[in-house]
Amino acid sequence: MSNPLKLLKANASNPKLWILIGVGVAGVVILAETRRRGRNGKVLQGEDFGAFIQRFELRPFPQPPPPAARQPLAGLTFAVKDVFDVKDYVTGFGNPDWKRTHDVAEKTDEVVTLLLKNGAACVGKTVMDELGFGITGDNKQYGTPTNPKLSSFVPGGSSSGSAVAVAGELVDFALGTDTVGCIRIPASFCGILAFRPSHGVVPMNRVLSNSPSLDTVGWFARDPSTLHRVGHVLLKLNSVEPRRMRRFVFADDLFQLSKVPLQKTVHVVEKAIENLSGYQSPKHMNFGQYLASNVPSLKGFLDQSSKLQKGITILKALSSVMILLQRCEFKINHEEWIKSVKPKLGSNASEDVLAAIKTSYDDIKTLYKVRMETRIALKSLLKDDGILVIPTVADPPPKFSTKKGIASEFRDRTFALSSISSMSGCCEVAVPLGKQDDCPISVSLITFHGADKFLLDTVLDIFSALQEQVGIASNNLLPFADTNGDMDASELLKEKGNAAFKGRQWNKAVSYYADAIKLNGTNATYYCNRAAAYLELGCFQQAEDDCSKAILLDKKNVKAYLRRGTARESLLLYKEAIKDFKHALVLEPQNKVANLAEKRLQKLIS
């Protein structure tokens, strides 16, 4: 027997010894808890990715005795965003000052209760962007949750903790709310599924609201079966419904905003539905131009000074209406509390709240009119069988930074996509499609208001085929190999392309220039000319890529810088566009196009 054990046995009846041992054990426990917590009492993120504000357990309602069917959510766990009332807990809105100035909830929200009645157990409340403002997941008070898929990148928000809890496999599903993309964005950044239901179909009676006209309850899951089961419970859907044909509509102009290769998005979805029964041949369209023709009230919100293509401009206008409506309604609901309490907020949340409180817009009815016209336009486009396919987000998640906020162009590109469902009230599901440069890829499927079961059934139907095609696309995506050919033949093709361009036959011009490039892939002019044709077609991503290739071949090609700047401006990449126009001015100081464009963009981002 060791000496310490002999000593313990010899003095077992001595009370002073046991007091000493107790103090030592307490010290170890305190040290462990101190190590677990960071400064200011914040829990470190190693064990739960910083997803939770508060842990507790709400047990499910008892399973009814046979012959009653098994509860549909039996055995599943879930977490809720810090906006849902849970009896005897304060609903904190992601902010300690809100929590301090409000009482505990008298009842549990009916959505949470419904999940408990159907067999699921609730294990806690999750971190969110303060007061529901923000799309990065940033929270300076409780700490920003760690993205389980990309630890140095933001998780997305405002329902950040709920997304992280699901992606980190801490729960089976989680509840959030979506105002301007607050469920769809973190789902995309964390590589999981998320469902934003039609506006108003899930009650929000005991849920804190940021903007009632935009807010919806939504949920995250890792697999389509769980997403589907939760949807059936919350939406109180019938199990059986006649199967309908499905018609996929790809918004080609919106995929131009994304730098993910089309082989990993559009091509994957097309190939997945190719051999499935009940799916019509997919259609392609310019969605921005469709909105411009079918939402007349948006004309008053267009930036008349913008040189952007009509379709992109209309999406910027739609997103500006969305943000204005959010600010107006937040001010109506929370201005009194903000001014009386003067809450401590992180810099990002503080800017958004201040902008909301300062908002002065008398004609709020016009904002509601835009919302109604957008819903009617989507219903007219999709009818009873259509599903619109768009990128969920345009860009990969920004790197986590406590010093700098997100760029205005990142917000513009993100909101241009998220505004479609937020302003129409249509249902949308974000579906992960593998990775690009280690960042999760996601596409969104949108259908008309009230067709939630139709959309949930669609995801369940196609998910396995999508994942199969994701694997094929990842293995087969090879770089394009140029081949050198006969110089005279390539020049002849270039001239044919020029003639087609002058005749406004843009597609034919692209074809001729492409053939010239196949014969001679080292001529910068061929790429630059094809970029000009792509710009006319609204294919901005392809135009940008061609100009970049032209610049690699000829660093003094002014037209390439001008055309790439135009393409980047149309993709809402303002800072990169400014660099291109400045470079063109270095090469040609008197270039009026570059000079005007550079001034216009500087004014825009300031």
UniProtKB/TrEMBL annotation:
Record's keyword annotation contains Membrane: no
UniProt keyword terms in alphabetical order: TPR repeat
Highest taxon of source: Eukaryota
Domain Amidase: 70-234
Gene3D superfamilies membership: Amidase signature (AS) domain (3.90.1300.10), Tetratricopeptide repeat domain (1.25.40.10)
Descriptive protein name: Outer envelope protein 64, mitochondrial
InterPro entries for the chain: Amidase_dom (IPR023631), AS_sf (IPR036928), TPR-like_helical_dom_sf (IPR011990), TPR_rpt (IPR019734)
PROSITE patterns: TPR
TPR repeat positions: 558-591
Gene source species: Cucumis melo (Muskmelon)
